[in-house]
UniProtKB/TrEMBL annotation:
InterPro entries linked: DUF2848
Pfam families per record: DUF2848
Protein's UniProt name: DUF2848 domain-containing protein
Organism of this sequence: Microbispora siamensis
Length: 227
């Protein structure tokens, strides 16, 4: 089982053993844009979802705080997202952090759920209490950069995605709101130009109200061919 530990702004540390992980899919608030994205991916061979939005269960051990992702081949890439981490029973025990959903793009055409389980969800080592930022959550920027030159590949705000409160309600209704839950938000569109299949990914949440940001970065190493 994976263990996660987060430094909070007040200097305290919150930790939990991961019990379940979910990756949200097709989670944009603009449903017209979501459908356009589904149609775009369908042309690339990615199967359309049976429902939108949705949650893909992911193996708990894939929630990681790491600086290195080892991939089976060169066509894997990240997605800049926020993540919820439930560390206890109270409202102040729900944390918000930066995350990157690393995905196998070759496998994605056979099944989105399969592709999510083929690579880790990389989480930052710092977090905010959701209760401290929920009042201005929509203003928080989600930023993705790739390569050692840190080319900007994603830049948007939390207002583009369904809010954490939506997903917390979904978990409660399903009887799945429990300590050790990790939930990634789904992602925002990529900027055309930068190569998503880069050897390094960096994601950040930037709070314009407090001036704070949470950053996570990792290198991608392609494993050698079978011997």
């Amino acid at each position: 089982m994976s263990a996660l530990s987060f430094e909070l702004p007040d200097g305290t540390v919150a930790a939990t053993e991961v019990t379940q992980v979910f990756n949200a899919g097709w989670a944009g608030r603009d449903r017209v844009q979501v459908q356009a994205h589904i149609d775009e991916l369908a042309e690339l061979g990615v199967p359309a979802p049976e429902r939108t939005p949705c949650l893909y269960p992911v193996s708990p051990y894939l929630a990681r705080q790491t600086s290195l992702v080892r991939a089976q081949h060169a066509r894997t890439s990240g997605e800049a997202e926020w993540a919820l981490v439930v560390t206890g029973p109270g409202p102040d025990d729900v944390l918000l952090t930066s995350a990157c959903d690393h995905t196998d793009r070759e496998l994605e055409v056979h099944g989105v759920a399969w592709s999510k389980n083929a690579a880790p969800d990389v989480l930052a080592r710092r977090a905010w209490r959701l209760s401290d930022v929920v009042g201005h959550l929509d203003e928080i920027r989600i930023v993705g950069r790739v390569g050692h030159e840190r080319a900007l590949i994603q830049d948007g705000t939390c207002a583009e995605l369904l809010p954490p409160t939506y997903w917390l309600d979904v978990l409660r209704q399903a009887g799945l709101h429990r300590t050790g839950t990790v939930l990634l938000s789904g992602t925002i569109p990529m900027v055309k130009g930068p190569d998503q299949f880069a050897s390094r990914w960096e994601t950040a949440l930037v709070d314009p109200v407090t001036g704070e940001e949470i950053v996570s970065a990792y290198d991608v190493e392609v494993l050698p061919a079978p011997l």
